[in-house]
Amino acid sequence: MPLMILLALLLGIAVCLQGTANGQLSGRIGLPLTLTINSGLVFLGALIWLAIAHFAGATPAVRGEASWKLYTGGLFGLVIISCAAVAYPRLGAGVTTTLAVGAQVVTALVLDQLGATGRHVPLTTTRVLGVALVALGVWLVVRPPQQAAS
User: Tell me: the pLDDT tens digits for 129-145?
Assistant: First the structure.
C-alpha cells in the first residue's frame, strides 16, 4: 500500500509539472506541435513498456475481448494534455490544478458509487463531507484575492 500511495503522489506531481511544461511549450511552438511531440514520446514510452513486458513474459498469451469504451483512455489523455496546455498559462498552476482536482474528486466518487472501476464504494456522509471540504478548498484558491485595508 505505501507504494500505491507513493505512486498517487507522483501522479499528482507529474500532472502539475506536465501542465506547466506543456503550457509553456505550446506558447512557444503552438498547441498542435506540442501535442504531436508529447504523443510521440508517450507512444515511444509505451512501446518500451510493451517490449519489456513481452521479454519478461508478463504479457498474456491470449487477450480477452474489451468493449470500445475501454479504449477511450487515449482520447481522455489528449483532453488532459490539451486542456492543461491551454489553462495553465492563463489561470496559473494553482488554480488550474485545484479546479482539476476538485473535478477529479467528484468524478471519482460517482465512478466509485457506480462501480465503474470494478469496485463499488458507496457514497457515505463522510465522503460527501469530504467533497464539501474539497469544494471549500477550491473556492479558497480560486476566489479573487482580497484587498488589504489601508
Answer: 999 999 999 999 999 88
